[in-house]
């Protein structure tokens, strides 16, 4: 049984801390670190690993220990919404695994993190125990700073752990879901209002593309803005369709697309031949293809 996990950690700037987080993941026997991506503007790192449920449970527990020791959200600043030092830990079924396996793993890991680190833990997506907690964005809304007020409402009591945020590490969401593609499109402007308008136009919740979540963010170090998207089902809305929608919306304001990027790994079926050029993918590496990293055929994952 092979399961994938993609923990997101609220640190993307301090190289020495990111190195310790990576080392914590690789210390677990049987867990393979497939990819690590850090973004200074978002101040966030995304790790992709695969292994047996037992190995992944050990790996993310080690990651949480290091993150709680190294990250203080009271002084953390970044463009990406966050509520925890280890912000989110999703589990995805791969070879021989089912969604039920991942739900059981998410609940096991959530309880462990709560008991060991006194972290409030919310279960989301397929692992959610309450309908209003299925959507990660709803759980995270208000961020770290808003947790005390939010958690005072019994409706937002965590599934595991204390009904108050950890003083420096906040709260963590642990879930089970299908593959998600993190896809960003950078625009040749510094107008954040444009990026936010485009995000509203393309995301599902405001009548845009189905299975697309989006937000507009500023990349201060580059003097441009970005439409940052999560494609929750690439078979419903493909990567190239999301890119074309952003490009068309930007053109309405006379703004060009600089480039796009895929954060982490992507299933082979999500990209067409030539997409690297059509999508203006920046620094895309064929090793970002999930099947190539795992040594599995496309048919295995389909």
Gyration radius, rounded: 18 Å
**CATH architecture annotation name of the largest domain:** 2-Layer Sandwich
Strand content: 15-25%
Q: What is the overall pLDDT average?
A: 94
Number of helices: 10
Q: Helix proportion of residues, in percent?
A: 25-40%
Shape: globular
* DSSP E strands, number: 11
Number of domains: 2
Largest sheet: 7 strands, mixed
Fourth CATH level, the homologous superfamily of the largest domain: Formiminotransferase, N-terminal subdomain
CATH topology of the largest domain, what is it called?
Formiminotransferase-cyclodeaminase, Chain B, domain 1
The chain-level structural class is alpha+beta
CATH top-level class of the largest domain: Alpha Beta
Q: Termini separation (Å)? A: 16 Å
Order of helices and strands: EEHEEHEHEHHEEHEEHEHHH
Note poorly predicted spans.
Answer: 297-302
Topology:
Layout: E1 3-5, E2 8-9, H1 15-26, E3 31-39, E4 44-51, H2 53-70, E5 86-93, H3 99-117, E6 121-125, H4 136-140, H5 147-151, E7 172-176, E8 181-187, H6 192-202, E9 212-219, E10 224-231, H7 239-252, E11 257-263, H8 275-278, H9 290-294, H10 298-301
Parallel strand pairs: 5-7, 6-7
Antiparallel strand pairs: 1-4, 1-5, 2-4, 2-5, 3-4, 8-10, 8-11, 9-10
């Amino acid at each position: 049984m092979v399961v994938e996990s993609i923990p997101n950690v609220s640190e993307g700037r301090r190289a020495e801390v990111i190195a310790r987080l990576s080392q914590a993941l690789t210390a677990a026997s049987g867990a393979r670190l497939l990819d690590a991506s850090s973004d200074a503007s978002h101040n966030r790192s995304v790790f992709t690993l695969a292994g047996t449920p037992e190995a992944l449970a050990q790996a993310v527990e080690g990651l949480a220990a290091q993150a709680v020791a190294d990250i203080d959200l009271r002084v953390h600043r970044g463009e990406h919404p966050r509520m925890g030092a280890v912000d989110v830990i999703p589990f995805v079924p791969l070879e021989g695994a089912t969604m039920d396996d991942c739900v059981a793993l998410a609940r096991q890991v959530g309880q462990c993190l709560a008991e060991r680190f006194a972290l409030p833990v919310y279960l989301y997506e397929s692992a959610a125990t309450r309908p209003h907690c299925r959507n990660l964005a709803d759980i995270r809304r208000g961020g770290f700073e808003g947790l005390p007020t939010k958690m005072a409402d019994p409706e937002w009591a965590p599934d595991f752990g204390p009904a108050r945020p950890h003083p420096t590490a906040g709260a963590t969401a642990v879930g089970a879901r299908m593959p998600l593609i993190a896809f960003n499109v950078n625009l040749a402007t510094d107008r954040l209002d444009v990026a936010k308008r485009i995000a509203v136009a393309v995301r599902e919740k405001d009548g845009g593309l189905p299975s697309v979540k989006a937000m507009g963010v500023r990349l201060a170090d580059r003097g441009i803005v970005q439409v940052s998207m999560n494609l929750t089902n690439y078979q419903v809305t493909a990567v190239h369709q999301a890119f074309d929608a952003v490009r068309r919306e930007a053109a309405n304001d006379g703004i060009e697309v600089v480039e796009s990027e895929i954060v982490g790994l992507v299933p082979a079926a999500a990209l067409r031949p030539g997409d690297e050029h059509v999508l203006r993918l920046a620094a895309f590496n064929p090793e970002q293809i999930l099947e190539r990293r795992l040594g599995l055929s496309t048919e295995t994952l389909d």
